[in-house]
């Protein structure tokens, strides 16, 4: 066991999360650069944290070019190491780096390519009945060749029929869908589509689309752009636990004006992703067939 860990040389610390530290490391046998997530088990009263179990289970099952590859799992002493392939940047850092060289947003062709790859990865997850539940730019890696990989499956959940009630402590606030903000008890795959829509808008504009600082502020930020929903656009809305009839009545704004770098097909796709009623929201499979991607299917 220790020999397996010994072949990985830590190069630098990449970041720290709730459950562990992530390092850039090198396999001294093959020279392959990898990412190494170290999870301390002695601080966990219940043993291995559920997020680590979910992540390992998901990555063991999911084999796809747009999902980060699991290379090894090593349990040593009081630590669990999850070794995965390495990419230079996450999407958030990549967008920030572009900003620093004077580019406020990603090139439209790159936005289209990244979105297409994100949808391909998520279509694979959804076809395996898995909800990611924490899609955000920090959980998407990109490399210098323009390849995209989805990471961080610690909140992944199997989607089952009949549908079950799930926790609301999922999805980082800016990417959290209105049904979860309004306290819906049973939700499913459309929660990921909302997150993808928020990432799509952010890639186009260079800044988060709905930037709330609390759950109620997040709802208001959504209402201010998409308009305050009602029963006609979202049947059953008034039965949701956190819905209040006294919410301010905002009129919808033009998404074409809010996302000036998107062509009309891109605006249409974004609009279909950011639909209030989860039952009416476009699926990842339908999104992949949208005319916005025609240029990828039929290159000039």
Automatic annotation (TrEMBL):
Gene3D superfamilies: Phosphorylase Kinase, domain 1, Transferase(Phosphotransferase) domain 1. InterPro entries: CDK (IPR050108), Kinase-like_dom_sf (IPR011009), Prot_kinase_dom (IPR000719), Protein_kinase_ATP_BS (IPR017441), Ser/Thr_kinase_AS (IPR008271). It catalyses: L-seryl-[protein] + ATP = O-phospho-L-seryl-[protein] + ADP + H(+); L-threonyl-[protein] + ATP = O-phospho-L-threonyl-[protein] + ADP + H(+). PROSITE patterns: PROTEIN_KINASE_ATP, PROTEIN_KINASE_DOM, PROTEIN_KINASE_ST. The keyword Transmembrane helix does not apply. ATP binds at residue 37. Residues 8-293 form the Protein kinase domain. Pfam families: Pkinase. Keywords: ATP-binding, Kinase, Nucleotide-binding, Serine/threonine-protein kinase, Transferase. One of its GO terms (molecular function) is RNA polymerase II CTD heptapeptide repeat kinase activity. Transmembrane segments: none annotated. The keyword Lipid biosynthesis does not apply. Its EC number is 2.7.11.22. PANTHER family: CELL DIVISION PROTEIN KINASE, CYCLIN-DEPENDENT KINASE 2. Belongs to the protein kinase superfamily. CMGC Ser/Thr protein kinase family. CDC2/CDKX subfamily. This is cyclin-dependent kinase. It comes from Blattamonas nauphoetae.
